[in-house]
Specification:
This protein has 208 residues and is mostly beta strands. The protein has two helices and nine strands, in the order αβββββαββββ. The chain has an eight-stranded antiparallel barrel. The radius of gyration is 24 Å and the shape is elongated.
């Protein structure tokens, strides 16, 4: 009886390992929920004088992802919408590749890269500057541009059709904008530039 039990347990372990290490070769679709932190540098200059500061914009985001698994990796496209308030709109679209570090467990770490486009728009100007007596003919901040960066995370295979994942993305971007504010006949140029976009997320994928 004991011998039969040992054999059965051994066969179960081997079978489970075989399923976990089975090469992936499927399409997948997924959803992501996470938080984003965007670092923005701002520089104001007028008549040879300049001053700069940095600020951070943070908030939640939701994304959809569609792609294809290969034996040691996956490629995909994503679209993300960000939680914003007031007269702001923020979104991103991109593509990525992740190298899957396959092993004999249900946990699969990955590292990869991403490239895409990022857009942040805020209409109505900057309230604090307007209240201080500055005026501008341009009432929309448009921080849009290309982005590229790195990914890392881990997949957990529930079964052959469903995966859970958690990960981190850090990207740099060319998104920038210039605005000119006027007060008492003096023009002040305000340059805004997005330096980094950091995301932490959890997700679920359906494989087909």
């Amino acid at each position: 009886m004991k011998k039969s039990l040992i054999v059965a347990s051994l066969l179960a372990v081997v079978a489970t390992s075989a399923v976990a290490s089975e090469p992936r070769d499927k399409w997948f679709g997924g959803l992501e929920l996470g938080n984003t932190s965007i670092n923005v540098d701002m520089t104001a200059s007028a008549t040879g004088t300049s001053a700069g500061t940095s600020t951070s914009i943070s908030g939640g985001f939701q994304a959809i992802k569609i792609g294809k698994y290969f034996e040691y990796g996956r490629v995909y496209v994503t679209y993300a919408n960000y939680n914003t308030t007031g007269n702001t709109d923020m979104s991103s679209f991109g593509a990525g590749y992740d190298y899957l570090i396959n092993n004999s467990t249900n946990w699969t770490p990955f590292i990869g890269a991403n490239i895409g486009s990022f857009s942040y728009k805020e209409s109505g100007g900057i309230a604090s500057a307007s209240s201080a007596g500055f005026t501008t003919t341009k009432d929309t901040i448009d921080l849009s541009g290309a982005s590229f960066g790195a990914n890392a995370g881990v997949l957990y295979s529930i079964n052959s059709n469903f995966d859970l994942e958690a990960g981190l993305r850090i990207s740099t971007t060319s998104a920038s904008d210039n605005m000119t504010w006027t007060k008492n006949g003096i023009d002040v140029n305000l340059e805004s530039k997005v330096n980094t976009i950091s995301q932490i997320y959890i997700g679920a994928n359906y494989n087909f």
